[in-house]
């Protein structure tokens, strides 16, 4: 025997029911519980967006993760299917009384501009490692391009690059990343260290790598 939705009077002969309500009214109820907008922080310098404690280039997956930190939808999962500077369309998949319903909802995006830690450090000339490349001009230039590409791909930066007669001095933000780079290419530069500060009682050192090619 057909049942009728207590909200819109649609019949179960014409539409799927979720519990006592038709699917359309169930979706309408869910949509009303979901906020109409979300706040996202975007760096005004590099334009990456903040996701928890990290920053990522603006993509659908990164925006999905950012919105999930501020938009709560109980018993629902969602992903961004499209976005603009002012809004985003989210595709929801929700479980209601043991049944799954899917729908899209457009929400507004409130973009908050701020400056991420990396850009603050870059502006201030921050660096943890000094890499000194010396030797044959062709080999030095080739190694320079490899290092610049590697640093950029791994979300670090070169705060300063100085041309020296026989090579370059590179001031790089992440000393661990520099160490990984040399390990990756099986290079063995000379290493030294210099103390540059203290943090919570711990000595902080800058690493100096000298590589002759």
Name a few traits of the molecule.
213 residues, alpha+beta, 2 domains, five-stranded mixed beta sheet, four-stranded mixed beta sheet, 5 helices, 26% helix
Give a description of the structure.
This protein has 213 residues and is an alpha+beta fold. The chain has two domains: 17-117, no CATH class; 125-212, no CATH class. Helix content is 26%, strand content 43%. The chain has helices at residues 23-33, 60-68, 117-124, 137-153, 175-184, and strands at 17-18, 21-22, 37-43, 49-51, 54-56, 76-83, 87-96, 99-114, 129-134, 158-164, 167-172, 190-199, 202-212. The strands form four sheets. A five-stranded mixed sheet has the order 10-11-9-13-12. The protein has a four-stranded mixed sheet with strand order 3-8-7-6, with helices on both faces. Strand 1 (17-18) and strand 2 form a beta hairpin. The longest helix has 17 residues, at 137-153. It is elongated, with a radius of gyration of 27 Å. 18% of the residues are buried.
What count of helical segments does DSSP give? 5
User: Over the alpha carbons, how many angstroms does the gyration radius reach?
Assistant: 27 Å
Beta-sheet strand percentage? Answer: 35-45%
Indicate the percent of residues in helices: 25-40%
Distance between the termini: 84 Å
Number of domains: 2
* Count of individual beta strands: 13
Q: Mind summarizing the main beta sheet? A: 5 strands, mixed
Computed structural class: alpha+beta
Q: Would you list the SSEs in sequence order as H and E? A: EEHEEEHEEEHEHEEHEE
* Uncertain residue segments: none
Note the overall shape.
elongated
What topology, given as strand order, has the largest sheet? 10-11-9-13-12
């Amino acid at each position: 025997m057909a049942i009728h939705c207590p909200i819109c009077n649609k019949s179960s002969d014409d539409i799927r029911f979720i519990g006592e309500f038709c699917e359309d009214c169930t979706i309408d109820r869910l949509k009303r519980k979901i906020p109409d907008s979300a706040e996202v922080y975007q760096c005004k310098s590099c334009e990456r967006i903040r996701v928890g404690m990290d920053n990522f280039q603006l993509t659908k997956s990164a925006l999905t993760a950012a919105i999930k930190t501020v938009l709560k939808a109980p018993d629902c999962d969602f992903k961004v299917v499209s976005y603009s500077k002012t809004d985003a369309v989210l595709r929801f998949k929700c479980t209601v009384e043991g049944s799954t319903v899917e729908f899209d909802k457009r929400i507004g995006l409130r973009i908050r501009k701020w400056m991420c830690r990396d850009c603050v450090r870059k502006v201030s000339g921050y660096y943890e490692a000094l890499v000194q490349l010396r030797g044959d001009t062709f080999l030095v230039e080739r190694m320079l391009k490899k290092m610049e590409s590697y640093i950029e791909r791994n979300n670090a930066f070169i705060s300063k690059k100085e041309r020296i007669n026989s090579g370059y001095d590179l001031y790089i933000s992440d000393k661990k990343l520099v160490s990984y780079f040399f390990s990756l290419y099986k290079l063995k530069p000379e290493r030294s260290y210099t103390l540059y500060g203290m943090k919570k009682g711990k000595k902080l050192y800058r690493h100096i790598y000298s590589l002759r090619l």
